[in-house]
Design a protein that fits this description.
Elements (H helix, E strand, L loop, with lengths): L1 E5 L5 H11 L2 E5 L19 E3 L19 E4 L10 E4 L12 H17 L3 E5 L3 H9 L9 H7 L4 H11 L3 H4 L2 H4 L2 H14 L15 E6 L3 H18 L1 H10 L14 H8 L5 H23 L6 E4 L1
Helix pairs in contact: 2-3, 5-8, 9-12, 10-11, 11-12
């Protein structure tokens, strides 16, 4: 198994395609935004594709929260029409559906096993380290989603969720970074764990899966990071990013839906609603991407198994 991760706009997919050609590989996505249907241009699904995998054998109740899973079979300029390759775990949920790392791990394990049984090389590629961490190292506690509890908690404000979680674990705030402390989905998941386990969130797990190659791509400096992201945002706009958002909204999806709570989509929706100008939306989009890329490396550099390459 090969893993390629790292900061946004570092060419992870391009490198993964090279390895796919060299090692008879099939790509497995672990980008938490590319799992959403219709979110194509802004999330960077550069590969034309069609749906591919059966949902047979998935855990009971899963269909309530995502469509029959899980993949795309794609063609690339690096490979001829007679020599196709596969990209799995694109387009497995609609924008109004919540999809946790717990759910990701369950389905990714099935896909990876299937690839190996067919004599192919699983090549995991993406930038959502939260998904990857749980896939490789497991969870602190094996608590399945409690969808009834989630429905109740989804009605509460961030402040109300913070109050609930502090009542369950008075020291929890010191264990969470500021981003997670303000993230309602992360707060809900931690409440879910605490209510089901009745204990705090500390704890460790052992490495479950050892990749043969574990590569992390990072920008060599802040200037390179900014320019790469600025160039990519401009490319997405030329490809039709604004029209993509308009189309999704016309389909009935809302800006509060999990899929649209995403960098790029949020800023363009603000522009379409008349809250900011187009230029302001673009600058806010670029800034948010840069900040996200910095957070990515902050989390990932703690993983000593990653071999870093500067781009």
């Amino acid at each position: 198994m090969i893993i390629i991760t790292g900061q946004t706009a570092t060419g992870k997919t391009a490198l993964a395609l090279e390895y796919a050609k060299k090692y008879k590989g099939e790509l497995v996505n672990f980008d938490s935004r590319q799992i959403y249907k219709y979110l194509d241009i802004i999330t960077g699904k550069d590969l034309p594709a069609k749906t591919g995998v059966s949902s047979e054998g998935l855990p009971t109740g899963r269909r309530r929260f995502f469509q029959p899973a899980a993949g795309r079979r794609a063609q690339s300029g690096l490979r001829s029409k007679q020599d196709p390759f596969s990209v799995w775990l694109y387009d497995i949920v609609t924008p109004d559906q919540y999809f946790s790392s717990f759910e990701y791990v369950k389905i990714a394990q099935k896909v990876i096993k299937d690839i190996k049984l067919r004599g192919k090389t699983p090549i995991l590629v993406g930038g959502t380290y939260f998904y990857l961490k749980h896939l490789l190292y497991g969870f602190d506690y094996q608590v399945p989603p409690d969808f009834i509890l989630r429905e109740k908690l989804n009605q509460k404000s961030v402040a109300e969720l913070q109050k609930i979680i502090q009542e369950l674990d008075p020291e929890i705030k010191q264990k969470m970074n500021q981003s997670d402390w303000q993230n309602p989905r992360r707060l809900i998941r931690k409440i879910e764990i605490l209510k089901n386990q009745g204990q705090n969130l500390s704890g460790s797990v052992l490495l479950k899966t050892v990749p043969d190659l574990f590569i992390g791509l990072k920008h060599k400096n802040k200037e390179h990071l900014y320019q790469a992201i600025k160039t990519r945002v401009e490319k997405r706009l030329k490809q039709g990013a604004i029209k993509e958002v308009e189309k999704i909204l016309k389909m009935g999806y809302k800006k509060t839906d999990p899929g649209l709570n995403t960098i790029g989509y949020k800023q363009i929706i603000d522009y379409l609603e008349g809250n900011i100008t187009k230029d302001q939306a673009i600058e806010k989009w670029i800034t948010a991407e840069v900040q996200y890329a910095k957070r990515q490396y902050t989390f990932m550099k703690k993983d000593k198994n990653i071999k870093w390459i500067e781009i």
